[in-house]
DNA sequence: TCCTACAAACCGGATAGTCGGTATGTAGAT
DNA sequence: ATCTACATACCGACTATCCGGTTTGTAGGA
């Protein structure tokens, strides 16, 4: 890929993360890249196509199964790894603008919803796997079904993220808060 | 307030719930209200001021403490009431567009964030109250602290709502899924 | 001498907002 | 009762600006 094209993609991503698709204008893109419209339309056929490429560019790594790399030694270790990952990688992106970007992607980018659902499914499977092993191993002992436990973890972190978007909480406080929550839920599961 | 002004507010709210602030045009508002631009600018000084008024108009009732009306007889009854309310009143609004509306409101409407945080705090207090009473009454018996239990309920339903936005799930399935989840969590708390 | 990589001028349509004007109502003086 | 003076409600043509997109031009490397 040309350097210039990647440059345009990077600048545009930044802009799309600050404003909605509609709010970002071609003029802004052109100005901030230091290029001309001619250059832009040399690399992209339309603003919409640019957006699709930006999204695929940006979500290429996000949507994959990074949580598959977490330790599966124990449920305890797994959710601790998850929190570290969430605080360091995911949380900084969790802003009003980033969620808006996701919504714009749902509107404009074909196949985006399918990819999102697929990644959600994969995430669920990973949790269920870890939970089942934890149960077999005797790490936890609870009447809750594997899927319900997985849902509590997944939904609660998503809800947590959403809440975090509204009030601004610093990173250390976030981590502690999340850790306390899941630790206490984990203790409950052990009983 | 004039009838006409209220009419404009209603029509605009509908439009802002379908599209973002930027996507809604004055022409649309004027056309759908059956009025002229002159009339519009007679009642509002700008599109932005209209938006602020629409938001205050719309969220005046939404942000209040409707969950205070749920039965506090038992935690069991409370969360069942909550689900009924959520499925019938909140869930239909939980769409990409409605969440986008909330984000636009955060951008444009002064004091909106404060109101939102206040309502979240009130919600948390209500849950904690119900949970504490349930514990005192012996309805539940768990090492989890009241606040952690409340957080699990609140975050999980918000996360649930967010997930629901992405994949389209029908109302009956939603209700069942949520009921199953919370019932199993509740059983866990009783142990 | 072409082709690539860009620049710059330009286009039609849409946008939010303005403005001069009108029709209707109404309070107070006569 | 009616006339005057003014307010309110509304209309729609108009404007300046900005939008995404197109066309034309050109410097420089192969």
TrEMBL record, chains A, B:
Residue ranges of the annotated DNA-binding region, renumbered to this chain: 25-44
Keywords: DNA-binding
Protein name according to UniProt: TetR family transcriptional regulator
Keyword Zinc-finger: no
The HTH tetR-type domain, residue ranges: 2-62
UniProt source species: Shimazuella alba
InterPro entries: Homeodomain-like_sf, HTH-type_Tx_Regulator, HTH_TetR, Tet_transcr_reg_TetR-rel_C_sf
SUPFAM superfamilies: Homeodomain-like, Tetracyclin repressor-like, C-terminal domain
One Gene Ontology molecular-function label: DNA binding
Pfam families: TetR_N
